[in-house]
Amino acid sequence: MPAGRPRQFDPPVALGRATDLFWSRGYEGTSLQGLLAVTGLSRSSLYQTFGDKHHLFSQCLEHYREKTVSGMWQRLEDAPTGRVFVELTMRRAIDDRHAAGGPRGCLVLNTATEFGHRDPDVTRQVQAALSAFRAVFEEAVRRGQADGSITPSQSPQQLAVYLVAGMGGLRTLVKGGEVEALVDGACEMLLTALD
Question: Which of 46, 48, 101, 136 is the most exposed place for a label (fewest CB within 10 A)?
Answer without folding.
Answer: 101
